[in-house]
Records
---
Amino acid sequence: MSVAAARGLSDPTVGNTPLIDVSPAFPELGRRVRVLGKAEWANPGGSIKDRAGWFIVREARESGKLSGDRVLLDSSSGNTGIAYAWLGARLGFKVSLAVPGSIARRRREILEAYGAELLFTDPLEGSDGAIREARLMLKAEPGRYFYADQYSNPMTWRAHYETTGPEIFAQTEGRVTHFVAGLGTGGTFVGAGRRLRELAPGVRLVSMEPDGPLHGLEGLKHMETSIVPAIYDETVADAKMSVSTDEARGAARALARRGGILLGPSGGANLAAALRLGRDLCAQGREALVVTVFPDSGERYLGERFWAP
């Protein structure tokens, strides 16, 4: 029996987050186009990454890959690491993470508060540098670690296939016409997209990524210049969009000041893409219900470059 079990802590409840209609903050969408976002900060660890983190941890525990004194090892830009860290604290296993040195200060403080062991990598190498470091750590001590490998672990996309996709379908009563999501691991877009296509065959799936390799959209990948995650399937997308850091920042600021909702960088980018799509559909006289995800709250980034004046 684990320490957590002995204390009577139950397995966590992840998912079933609210779907927020942000259209009233953007009257240029007209009356026939709505844009909605999943408020993923409502998860126990404050982000969408709780979904994949819990699926990865649950499968590893059930299969015996994360047992005894094994340490969960992975790379993370912050939120997946936070998911591992609070799960480790609750369920009784240790967590070791390779993270870019550019990680937001508040996320670093959260990771340290949960007791995760952190190894910082070159900020200029971003998430790819952290991936390489985690692989080196595993190679040096293979018997010490369970390598969660969120970028290759099928549980990353499976979490969204099993939870995010069905939730969106149910919350929109099957009326979702477009799903837009940014690419980091690719798990959200691939998993939710695959399930939505099964549930609503007419849905349009639009992937989004930063407009270049040097960007301020923490958690997102410019696929052409990055290590492409093994779980990413580019055939899922019906269309692709790119968003600049400035466009994402502008969308996030607009929602904060018109709608009273704070988004992080990836949420701002998802919103910017959904709004651009929505405006195009409005101009065409189309009726549409565009759904995206807001991976975390902007509160974790206040004082950081993205929210700096």
---
Amino acid sequence: MKLAIIILNWNGKKLLEQFLPSVIQHSKDADIYVADNASTDDSIVFIKSNYPSITIIQNKENGGYAKGYNDALKSVKADVFCLLNSDVEVTSNWLNPIIKTFNNDKNTAIIQPKILDYNKKDYFEYAGAAGGFIDKYGYPYCRGRIFNTLEQDQGQYNDTIEIFWSTGACLFIKNDIFKRLNGFDEYFFAHMEEIDLCWRAKNLGYSIKYVGASEIYHVGGATLKKSNPKKTFLNFRNSLIALTKNANGFILGKIFVRLILDGIVSLKFLLEFKPKHTLAILKAHFSYYYHLKHILTQRQSIKNKIKYYTRTSIVLDYFVNRKTKYKSL
């Protein structure tokens, strides 16, 4: 099995300086690429000077995560792609359990390792933690992380299980499956595009796995911090798009409930004196409704839509019933 690790970069020289060494040290059997999204810093000069063995793919524009990877992966020849954030430190045995899982289960299309916090290494990291799921209304959550509550890693998720979505911080996907799915939906730009990709894979009958024997450490928010209203806009808008495109059942009812729940969240931001985030949610909904005709056309093209949730509302579970850990759900 030929494996290629592709790191998407945008003005991230400092991150490459810090994290490339661990990737190179612990990925001897993989080809390593840096896909550059039209950076204006000296990232490319740094790589060429210090790591001549790394293949550089220079994208013509900064198309975000989705278009950046879609463009870059066209020129990568491998059986499996590892899409790896530039702010990730990998460990000595991170690849072997992944490859073994792919070899043991031919229906597995996508795999995620255990994601721990680089700055607090005995805790799970926000983006992906120990594997992702969504509720009926499209709100994502993880084993090891529900909203902003992060669990300490005590070996409780040292397993290999079926999950619903893999984080884009470190996503392994078979080349042929990525092509069959036509890659990421570029309208997403960034955030939630990996959930949409995984959802489409699930609707086609493929398996997505979490492999706890593989560990990495993720900084998180290195490109766009959680406090940035643009991130709030992308998360809420893209979540609505993914739900509308891919969910089974009566979609208008789900969107109506989302309108109410998102309204409550926007009010919460307002009461916390974060009006820019309230405005970001409003903008997310306006953008979604403006493009709704196109999104519904995409929905019609997806013929098989599986049941995708086990929790009706993670919002109520967390904020009302105070269930802050995955095992309490």
---
Amino acid sequence: MKIDKKIIMPSILVLVSSVLVITLAYFGAEIIENGVNPTGVTTGSLDVSLSDSAVSVSNLKPIYAQYVDSMAYKKEFTITNAEDSLDSSNDIYLSINNISNELKNQYFKYKVVVDGAESGGNFSSAVNGERLQIYNDLAIKSNTSKTISLYIWIEYAEGVDQLDMLGTELNANLVLESTDKRIYTLYDKILADNQGGQSDENIDFSQISSDTNGNGLYYTSRTDVTEDLDGDGTGDRVYYYRGAVTNNNVRFGGFCWRIVRTNEDGSVRLRYNGEYSNGTCPVTGTAVRINSQNYAFYGSFNNQKYNEYIWEDGTGESLAKTTIDEWYTSSGLESYADKIANVPYCADKSNPTTPTTGSYTSYTFYGAANRLTDYSGSSIIAKSNAQPTYKCADIEDKHTVAGDSWGGNGKLSKPIGLLTADEVAFAGGQRSSNSTYYLYTGAHYWTISPFRWTGSIAYSFNLSSTGYLFFNFYDVSDTNALVPAVSLRAETMVNAEGDGTYTNPYVVES
């Protein structure tokens, strides 16, 4: 992605308008748009246009709220920013030429839908000869367009006399005010604020992060540890945060998050980080968890499939998954689904291995354990040539929602999961205490990665209360915190003013 670090000054204002005439009647309505052509106004070097066309509808009448999308008056128009280098911020107004007094109430409503996100209001404050703002700060990058849907309707109210609203009229102009504004995707902002990151070629992943073993934003130097989405035979670059960083905070969906890494398609993976309170996100070491309680990964431990996030045989799923899915809905995060990417969560159970020497010859170890640990002796230690990966070897472990473009298994019902042990290792975790790296919370919490099957007990990786990448004390029936992860789509935009710190996090634009 190209990063434009120019600062655009001064602000440029563009006004574009078109005529919208709406006449309301109970069993018949005429909506006429007069004399409108696609209009472009260029001031200085900012070129923004509002397209429009004539509209005519009938039978506009009071309707129930649940039928707005199918029965309300709907108008679509497109705003195009044709400038090559200037991004724009756009406020949309209805300039009120004439509105009947009977319509100036909470039952005469509008909503604007852009990219699946809605904003709306009513006409109770509408005044003849003045503007009513119906959308604030619609960000449009250079050489792109946005299609906007405007709905206007009378909302039916049980027990309220609405007869005086019939036969009334609204006459207004759509007006667009555009100013130049530097718009960042979250991906762009990460790279711009960290000078493009640095190569991880000198990092020793058998050791925890430190001032001499990784603090900051890094990118993958090896092309065999990332997914090859563009099909050129080599893995695509991933950027990730490692160590005691404090500039990877994001506010999204009503919560704080820590940026973990970019995905190979440019989307950005976040780990839940609790509530925004008193002007700050929780700092490293805060014991964040959903629902303020701990959960078993699975309710029992005595089955080889109990450390699977979703059972490969399709007969069940973990308590961790069920709980996280329920939280995704109850927390309101589901209403932001248009910004959440459908990317894999890898519960890697590939390459099951039984040691031929040492104390664990009756145990079976799985993918991440084989990459990160050495279990050939009398104790389990960090592997001397440990190499975490972002690739998921087996499609059965590559959990996605149906319809993904990653070749996943389509078994997820919600686009949310947990971090992998490999992501923890990239971030700075290993088999040593580490209370400085940003994934440390001071509490135990689960990853999605299976660790081993002893023949009678299933274990999964988790982070300990000291930041230790842990596995051999808590089995899957023990209780730890659930700290979920989501990924934001590559086109997700954030405020230009944020710097990612606890007190000034990046804020995802609505």
---
Amino acid sequence: MIAISFAVEGLGRREVFGKKGVLWVPTFKDMLTEKSIFRNKETLSPHFVPEHMLFRENEIRTLMEGLLPALKDQKPHNMFIYGGTGTGKTASSRTVIEKLVSEGSDRIKPVYMNCRVYDTRYKVLQKCISHFNPDFAKTGFSFSVLYERLLDWVEGDGDHIEAKRLIVVLDELDMVKDLDSLIYTLVRANDDLKKGSVSIVGISNKVNFKIRLDARSRSSLCEREIVFQPYNAMQLQGILKQRIKQAFEDDSVVDESGINLAAAIASAENGDARYALLLLLRAGELADSRKTRITDKEVQDARKQAEEDKAFEIISTLPEHQQIFLLALSSLSLDSQYHRLVEEGGERFYLSGETYEKYCHYVKKMGKEPRTSRWMREYIVELDALGLITSIQSGKGVRGRTTLVRLAYEPEKVRKIVESTLTGP
């Protein structure tokens, strides 16, 4: 049988058909032998920590200075790191912790945790204890037992073992529900220790998270703060070029203009390096499937995919009635028989009143009670602010003054994501 293969644009895979049109499923071995422009995709992952963090030398040095006392067998400073998403906070912290462990002694014990997972004081102490004692039961103990066990370990368990310098790294610290209790407990633990110490490295996107702390906790912290500023376009170009050498078999597969475009787009998105790397990864996957280079087109297409993914993630978490409103608007947009729309700058807008009527139809069909039109006006404002719809006030040619709305994304895709969310798996 003669097999005919061709790449399907945008799917990132090869469909192979036999002479009679029967789909041939390749083996993993076949797929492994397919030529790819990638050498190591992992280097474009947000979890990858490069050997050298570009443009964060000053921040890394400041963090190292704060933790330096641990190498002198003294208590490290409490450090708090702030900055937007993708500004290098986590990667820089991991870099410093790795340096500290490699240059220090066994007495230095850092414990890293993501507070989206370890989101209570109890879970944080559990994580600390299980890190150094995996056999210790993770549930069933009171908080006071966990606390005493932690202190015993830091002091050396009374078995002539040297005391420890425990450094608790709390990423996304602001996600902890009982944050004030956690901070107070970890800071005050040093008052109950005869030897050894407990220090905090807190990482947060929110500079004002300390508002949640009461005066006692704030006064006992004595912390040092580091602010990570957003990357500018030139810095993002440098970061992308660094990763390109590691990610691709030949760095010439990426056009210079493609690098500049990805950096410019990410710079406009609050200097988010993660977003720049995501664009490069998606653009590379598109180029792989199209058997071409990474050009401006691949970057623009990757941007569209990334924006849609982000939009659909937002849609799936919206309140039910806002989702139904989007369903109504997508239904109108897909109805070829619907003519009461307004052309504005080459774009088709729909009357908010008509959309509200369609919304009421869907809500009643689901056996629910529609929200009032006043609520719907609030929804329009909120959905517009999220970038899911565009709304404008009507001009000439429309009787009275009304709001016109349109989806910011393809109606068919919006309808599918709303239907799948509302109906469940």
